[in-house]
Write a structure and sequence with these properties.
By secondary structure, this protein is an alpha+beta fold. The protein has helices at 11-17, 20-32, 37-44, 48-60, 93-120, 126-131, 143-158, 162-165, and strands at residues 5-8, 64-66, 77-79, 83-87, 136-141, 182-185, 211-216, 259-262. It contains eight helices and eight strands, in the order E-H-H-H-H-E-E-E-H-H-E-H-H-E-E-E. Residues 200-264 have low confidence and may be disordered. The strands form three sheets. The chain has a three-stranded mixed beta sheet with strand order 1-4-8. A three-stranded antiparallel beta sheet has the order 5-7-6. Strands 2-3 form a two-stranded antiparallel sheet. Helix 1 (11-17) packs parallel to helix 5 (93-120), helix 2 packs across helix 4 (48-60) and helix 3 (37-44) packs across helix 4.
């Protein structure tokens, strides 16, 4: 299934979302449903005025909106979508800088979530410890092959998307797992001005002739974890990659080449 998402493209919106508390708030709303600033503050250990301010900012960028309350005094908020995505292919300097800023915040959240999991991993059963954790391996691929690999990985994860929106479809014993995919080029781009970015490159010394990409998938967290973020898309990202205040899945979670998601 295709999850509803908000796609950010304006530099101001990208920078506006690049805030740990805002990502956590969106993840909370996406996982636990509409709630007031007071309720969100209690769950996140923040002040009510602080949460109220950041929720208004999220509404400004189309990520949150008011929801019907039980009475005139109650004014809850809800997320407008289950994913947040943005592209990383713009040639505009301001947009690229904003994307880098947002990605840096998201990466810091990934690291924090991984550290939190590592600290409590010993409490998990042997079965869960055996299927979670950290790993990486190099692959030598072209741009087109990397795009195809990402699409195949995404297709596998998408098979479970209906369980995000409908808890009734989650089988007994299932738990929320944050899949964080990081696709990192191990070497800087070739300096040969004649090199074709989409094909083999001339190398010197011990540089590979094709891109060396390291990928990592990590993290298991119980369904009670309320700060996802990213994001699961990868954007790929939410991506929300991207991961929703959710870490991100998911790396940024990437579904299309150059796209990141978080907050899923």
């Amino acid at each position: 299934m295709s999850l509803p998402e908000v796609k950010l493209s304006d530099p101001k919106a990208l920078r506006g979302y690049a805030h740990p508390l805002r990502m956590a708030l969106i993840g909370l709303l996406r996982q636990q449903g509409p709630m007031t600033a007071t309720q969100a503050a209690e769950r996140l250990g923040e002040s009510v005025p602080n949460c109220s301010f950041h929720l208004r900012q999220l509404a400004k960028y189309g990520l949150a909106e008011r929801a019907p309350g039980a009475d005139a005094r109650e004014r809850p908020w809800r997320a407008t979508a289950l994913n947040t995505s943005w592209d990383d292919v713009s040639d505009d300097p301001q947009t690229r800088a904003a994307v880098d800023e947002l990605s840096a915040v998201q990466l810091a959240l990934y690291v924090r979530k991984a550290e939190e999991f590592l600290a409590r991993r010993a409490e998990e059963s042997t079965a869960w410890r055996a299927v979670t954790g950290f790993a990486d391996r190099p692959v030598y691929v072209t741009v087109d092959e990397m795009a195809a690999l990402r699409a195949r990985i995404d297709a596998l994860v998408t098979e479970y998307d209906d369980r995000i929106a409908d808890p009734a479809k989650r089988p007994a014993g299932s738990r929320k797992v944050s899949l964080i995919r990081l696709a990192l080029l191990a070497d800087p781009p070739p300096t040969d001005a004649l090199a074709d970015a989409t094909g083999p490159t001339t190398t010197t010394n011990d540089s590979p002739t094709t891109a060396n990409t390291n990928t990592a998938v990590a993290g298991a967290s119980p369904t009670t974890d309320h700060a996802n973020a990213a994001t699961t898309g990868a954007g790929g990202g939410d991506g929300d990659g991207g991961g929703d205040g959710e870490l991100p899945v998911s790396g940024p979670v990437a579904r299309d080449l150059g796209e990141q998601r978080g907050d899923r």
